[in-house]
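Researcher: We are triaging several targets before committing to wet-lab work. For this one, the compound of interest is fe (ii) ion. I'm pasting the protein sequence and the ligand SMILES. What I need is the predicted three-dimensional arrangement of the protein with the ligand bound, expressed as structure tokens, so it can go straight into our comparison scripts without reformatting.
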Amino acid sequence: MDPKAKEHLLTEAEANEFQQNGYFVVEDVLPQSLTERLRQLTADVVNEDRDRLNIPQDRFHGVLDFIGQRDEFLRLVDWYKTVPKICGLLGPEIKLYHTVGMETPPARGKTTEDHHEWANWHTDTGNLTRDLARDSFNPMISVKVGYVLSDLTSPYMANFTCIPGSQNNIDYPGSHRQFIETNARQVLAPCGSAIIFDRRLWHTPTLNISSTTRYMIFNGYSYRWLANRDEQRIRHFLRRATPIQRQLLGFSNHGAYGSSNSFPDDLPLKDWFEAVKLEGAV
Ligand SMILES: O=C(O)CCC(=O)C(=O)O
Ligand SMILES: [Fe+2]
């Protein structure tokens, strides 16, 4: 873990915002040069996939199992400005369980009038809610980091859109899952920032009415025992990953038995987090 990580723990203000709205934005999490590089690599990976699947250039497209697609993505696994905050939300016994790289080109011929007519409201990994939620019980279990790789400081740019506070609603709190309603918020965020959100938050992708293509990488972290949501083809990373990266890539020294146990040799992120908390307490 980068030694600077300890300066980026979850703050009280962020924890409160997350509790209240189900998300918060952290600016300047990626330096400009890295943002540009990640944007280019995301475009390359998405376009290779478009060619493979014959997906038109003007349609949005996301590539699942994204993290292993380029060597340079490995550094995001334990990124020092975001992962400490995820530890603050879920604790340190976590892993990466789902990664997506997404390209959203301008929606040709569409205007802001059309914007509210296209939505797909959902919560993430929704079967968790379906199978676990009862009355007011609906555990969080996972959190996503959306890295903003293109400017999203104005609305109608395919901004991540959510109903603030809706992480506490087991059922969709609006009336139309296909429309953007008035209580929806288009989250504004500069290039290089991260949107950290609760998987229970009701959110939707939206049309891009601007003239610039939107790029984002979404990395989902969960407790270690949750099944991965994509193939997680990362074996080629394991040899050169640091111990903390290996934990976050789902590796256990105890095989399948490890992920629902807390063997100390599987949990270097926990050692790091506890040491940092102790340091902060003195
Ligand atoms: O594209 C978006 O803004 C939404 C993506 C999304 O639903 C997700 O990452 O879970
Ligand atoms: Fe989602």
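Researcher: Any quick observations?
Model: The two ends are 21 Å apart (CA to CA).
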